[in-house]
Amino acid sequence: MRMSIETVALIGKYQSPEVAETLVEVARLLQERDLKVRIEQGTASSTGLASAHAVSSYEEIGAQADLAVVVGGDGTMLNAARRLAGFDVPLVGINQGRLGFLTDVARQDARAALDAILAGKAEEESRFMLEVEVLRGGQRVFHTNALNDVVVNKGDLGRMIEFDVCIDDEFVYTQRSDGMIVSTPTGSTAYALSANGPILHPSVVGIALVPLCPHTLTARPVTLPDSCTIDIVLLAPHDASVHFDGQERFDARAGDRIRVARSANCIRLLHPPGYSYFAMLREKLHWSASPRHP
């Protein structure tokens, strides 16, 4: 996949100076190829790179960059994806976090991977996002996007909450549980996986509903078409916390309606040649690993 790349933005893990060395190496590589380099302003302030490169906001990156290189973990990529949603800037991730489902390029392989991507040998995939709004008395009080998941949970309460679930305006059930995860295929290997949700291949255009500790054992995960609109209505007297990609949070009240649907925005992820989703799962989830004995 060949692209015309002239300007590359560098985005680092939030307030993490330890990514500075990798960012410097990547910036040097890009400059050697006569590319313009822009550093995201939060990254520049935490790494001290502001004096060496042009500093840009996410809005400026969205308007001016042809490629964004994200250095950090999956959380860094999720934040960058939400901030750049709607700008159609392709993203490539260099992992300096933990698992790295989204930041799949190992640091030691960064130079070779970027060389291949800049040479037009990248493998591109599109990941859809979720659009979320919270309605209170019929009025929108909150709105955002999420790439991984939307989580409605009991917050600090030491008991279950109760809510109605409707799909395309059809009542499905009333559930008593710790909450509900609404997950994209991208998020199916995150929190939803810990709650026994299904792993959805990125090419599956589905949304997973995954209950959190339901009081009814027959309440099982359900995969829905991405064309569905999902409403979760909190029943009195239960309030709840709503989390978006584990980073943003909204405190919802009894009676609030959390509405989730597929967003018009998609994220473009670039991978080096030879990328395999199943090889990535095999590595990150330790499939086929030999049992360990003490």
UniProtKB/TrEMBL annotation:
GO terms for molecular function: ATP binding; metal ion binding; NAD binding; NAD+ kinase activity. One of its GO terms (cellular component) is cytoplasm. It catalyses: NAD(+) + ATP = ADP + NADP(+) + H(+). GO terms for biological process: NAD+ metabolic process; NADP+ biosynthetic process. Its cofactor is a divalent metal cation. Transmembrane segments: none annotated. The active site is at D74 (proton acceptor). Pfam families: NAD_kinase (PF01513), NAD_kinase_C (PF20143). Its EC number is 2.7.1.23. NAD(+) binds at D74, G75, N148, D149, R159, R176, D178, T189, A190, Y191, A192, L193, S194, Q247. It is found in: Cytoplasm. Keywords: ATP-binding, Cytoplasm, Kinase, NAD, NADP, Nucleotide-binding, Transferase. NCBIfam families: PRK01231.1 (NF002306), PRK02155.1 (NF002561). Involved in the regulation of the intracellular balance of NAD and NADP, and is a key enzyme in the biosynthesis of NADP. Catalyzes specifically the phosphorylation on 2'-hydroxyl of the adenosine moiety of NAD to yield NADP. Belongs to the NAD kinase family. This is NAD kinase. It comes from Nitrogeniibacter mangrovi. The gene is nadK.
